[in-house]
Every structure is written in C-alpha cells, then in structure tokens.
C-alpha cells in the first residue's frame, strides 16, 4: 500500500515538474484582447504561443507573434518586415523590397466600401527610417483600419518577442493551427 502512494506521488510530482517546464520555457497561453488581428484572431481567443521556436530559427515575415509592447502589455501582431526590409503600401497592396506580397488572409475582412483597407505609406513616412533596422521587426494587425501597430509605435526589438502563435484553442469551433 505504501509503495502505491509513493509511486502516485512520484508520478504527480513528475507531471507538475513537466507542466512547469513546458509553461515556463516552451509554451505560454495568451488571450487576444481587441480587434486588431481580425479576421485571423478574434477578441477573447485563447492562444498557445511557442516560446522556444525562435531559439532555433529566425523570425519570418507573415508569422503571427506575441511581443512585449511595454511592461504591462503584450501584443499579438503579424510580422510584415524584418531587418533590412523596405516596406511600402500603395493602392492597398503591400510591397516588401519592391516585391508585391500576397496578403490573401486579409480578404475576409476587406469591406467593399470603395475605401482602402490599408492606407498608402512608406516605411520612411511612418518611422523616419528607409529600412527596418537589424534586430527589429515591423508588425501590423490584420485589421488594418483598426490596429495599433508599427505604423504608430515604430519597430519592435526582436528581444521583446515572446514567441510565435502556434494554436488557437478557444473557442473550439475556431480551433486553428496555421496563421
């Protein structure tokens, strides 16, 4: 009987230790607050963020990330530009280094009201820089008309990135793994 209790306690302690390691070093759970990432993510969605992925690979354009915006808030946005990129939006089309980028993920939210979904800008107009500095990112929300993003607060240091959004797990009917 004593042996059963020891085995059960050992199993519980091991499970708690593994949960602590996964939560602290590999994954984190976040709640989307606001509408800036619609239609990709909605207010109240619960996300699983991979905190370790960028220890092994670089941050790439189009990935959805969570980063520390300030001491109290974390933001979720899409990476538009990485170090060295020139960015421009013209006629509601995104150009990176002069190349037109596919942003079909925006199509479900684009209103048919004749107004641009993303106002024209160049990187220099919104940040004063002609390219994204090395070690920094330019991020935008998918809901371009209603997003506080790099067009307003500037570049995001790579060190402030918490991780990559891997899974939307709540609500269940919006379960998703690719963003």
From TrEMBL:
Superkingdom of the organism of origin: Bacteria
GO biological process terms held by the UniProt record: signal peptide processing
Residue intervals of the Peptidase S26 domain: 7-170
Keywords (A to Z) from UniProt: Cell membrane, Hydrolase, Membrane, Protease, Transmembrane, Transmembrane helix
One GO cellular component term: plasma membrane
Compartments, as annotated in UniProt: Cell membrane; Membrane
GO molecular function, one term: serine-type endopeptidase activity
Transmembrane segments: none
Entry EC no(s): 3.4.21.89
Reaction(s) the record says it catalyses: Cleavage of hydrophobic, N-terminal signal or leader sequences from secreted and periplasmic proteins
Keyword field contains Transmembrane helix: yes
Membrane topology designation: Single-pass type II membrane protein
Active site positions, chain numbering: 36, 77
Similarity annotation: Belongs to the peptidase S26 family.
Protein name (record): Signal peptidase I
């Amino acid at each position: 009987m004593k042996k059963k209790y020891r085995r059960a306690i050992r199993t519980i302690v091991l499970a708690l230790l593994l949960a602590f390691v996964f939560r602290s070093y590999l994954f984190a759970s976040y709640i989307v607050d606001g509408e800036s990432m619609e239609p990709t993510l909605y207010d109240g969605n619960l996300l699983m963020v991979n905190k370790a992925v960028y220890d092994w690979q670089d941050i790439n354009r189009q990935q959805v990330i969570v980063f520390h915006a300030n001491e109290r808030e974390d933001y979720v946005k899409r990476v538009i530009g990485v170090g060295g990129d020139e960015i421009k939006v013209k006629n509601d089309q995104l150009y990176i280094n002069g190349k037109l980028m596919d942003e079909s993920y925006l199509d479900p939210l684009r209103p048919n009201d004749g107004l641009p979904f993303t106002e024209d800008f160049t990187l220099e107009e919104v940040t004063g820089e002609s390219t994204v500095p090395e070690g920094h990112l330019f991020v935008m929300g998918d809901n371009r008309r209603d997003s506080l993003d790099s067009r307003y607060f500037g570049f995001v240091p790579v060190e402030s990135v918490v991780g990559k959004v891997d899974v939307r797990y709540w609500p269940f009917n919006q379960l998703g793994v690719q963003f």
